[in-house]
Hints:
The chain has helices at about 10-20, 25-40, 50-60, 90-105, 125-130, 185-195, 235-250, 295-310, 325-335, 340-355, and strands at about 5, 70-75, 80-85, 110-115, 135-140, 160-165, 175-180, 205, 210, 220-225, 280-285, 340. By secondary structure, the chain is an alpha+beta fold. Strands 2-3-4-11-5-6-7 form a 7-stranded mixed beta sheet. A 3-stranded antiparallel beta sheet has the order 9-8-10, with no helix packed on it. A two-stranded antiparallel sheet has the order 1-12. α1 crosses α2. The chain is globular and about 50 Å long.
Amino acid sequence: MKTMQADYHRLQNFVASVFESIGTPESQAQLAAEVLVSADARGIDSHGVARLAGYIRLFDHGRLNPNPQIAIVHETPSTAVIDGDKGLGLVVAPRAMEIACEKANLAGTGWVAVRNSNHFGIAGYHAMKALDHEMIGWAMTHAAPLVTPTFSRERLLGTNPIAIAIPAQTEPPFVADFASTAVAYGKLEILQRKGLDTPDGWVQDADGNPCNDAFAIKNGGALLPLGGDREHGSHKGYALGAMVDILSGVLSGANFGPWVPPFATAGFMSAGESVGIGTGHFLGAMRVDSFRPAEEFKYDMDKWIQRFRSAEAVDGKQVIIPGDPERILEAERKSMGIPLLEPVVADLKALSKRFNLPFSIA
């Protein structure tokens, strides 16, 4: 399938103009665009501008407030719960991380649970914001129920990603950002656009049988937890997803489990029954010097990274540190451009036409 090379800054400005067109204040629109395009830059195309049309569909269905009044509704010196007022998770989550860092400055660690939000993009972006404060950052969120617990035919959990960002001294930071499922749903969307089947262990059909259908979700099937099946550790992926759901939903007062409202994807739009308020997230910041002198820690992190990176590898491969591939690709794509598949370009052109915006992203 053909691709179009988009300029990083022009693409970000176009995305911001789309958000402004639905009433998002300029500063929030620029932030939302930065979060979204950062996914494409880091090679996580499933969570980048391919999702832009989905946010607009949320707005069209009254599920997205383009100008939210984000508020703390409960707090202690080291914790808070914030209500996102149905805002863009791309804006709500960065505010939550700001609060977590502020509390960590005072108390050593800061933890913020979020309710009444929407899809927040890639978890890694939010975790990495703590690095600016010489802190360890955590970010996680639950999502619409597309995933079966081990041995289940019912979809009860989302892809529920977890991210952690850890600073080092001279080495790049350690950044792990991963779904608790075998794969994120957006990867299925990419395969659907390319007309390809899924690898083994990604999905099951409506009867609970393993399959390779990229459209399995739309046909009543489900994503599988990380591990794929019990023999390969799917119970661990199930447990990780459940932990994220409880911290993001049950703890915050958001919806949880099968009641998490869907993003505008997979053909689903109705929020359905509710047991809480909107979508939830959970973010944290840990001040390194709350545990030991920061310079000593970062020196040891350098040693850790260098030792693991130099590990004897198999078949001429190289052992990588979590965050390496994304960091390298980000530098390349910011310089050389971001490849966009034809269906994504078509969606962006449709938005430019709808909002009468110039389509100049190359």
